[in-house]
Amino acid sequence: MSVDARRSVNPVARLLTAAVIAVALVLSVDWVSALTALVLEIPLFVALGVRLRPFLIRGGLITVAAGLTALTNLLYGEVGGTVHWHFLLINVSDGSIALALAMFLRVLAIALPSVFLFLDVQPTELADGLGQILRLPSRFVVGALAGMRLVGLLREDWRYLGYARRARGVADHARLRRALGQAFALLVFALRRGSKLATAMEARGFGAYPGRTWARPSTFGAPEFALVAAGIAIAVASVAVSVVSGAWSFIGG
Fold this sequence. Notes:
Layout: H1 3-8, H2 11-26, H3 31-48, H4 52-76, E1 83-87, E2 90-93, H5 94-116, H6 123-132, H7 138-151, H8 153-167, H9 175-203, H10 222-245
Antiparallel strand pairs: 1-2
């Protein structure tokens, strides 16, 4: 699947694919199912036309996050088997090592498709799909879309708030206190903007009627079904391999 073809896949299909894989992986805490899913996801990324540079950059960040999660479980996880190192509350044992490995692979297997399936998704396309295909309430969908569009303004607001504070001479010292004060000012500014946006949307009749028309039709065809089927296949295969190998450990057990 080329990059253009990947962009044409409905965002709802990407959302469902990532959700199916995530649900299957959170049902168990073992490294076999996570590793199986991770291996099977690589061909999916290749078929979707994910470029190498974004994969390495974003994949590196996800790997760092997964490593930090694994480190926490390694040092403070449940003690089991032989204890290799003990210091105050830190216990490195066979159980914590196995848990750290499982969590490292699990974070990668869940986060990678969640990130790379949404690399080029436009918020408007996602909102169209949620409203037309999943039949979510239009009031919720349009409101969430408006909120997502305002998120991009936060960085610009933060920069302008910094300029204004420097112009008043209150940003030349005490960096921590300056950052906290500027963050609070940004929060107040965001709440005011959100209130104005909500009032404007109410005045224009958003959500006044249970049904509404959509300017752009959102379709769900063969490419979308193929992508969802691939996600289901990855989920089923990871669970099956884990169960057969005897590594399956249901979270409720």
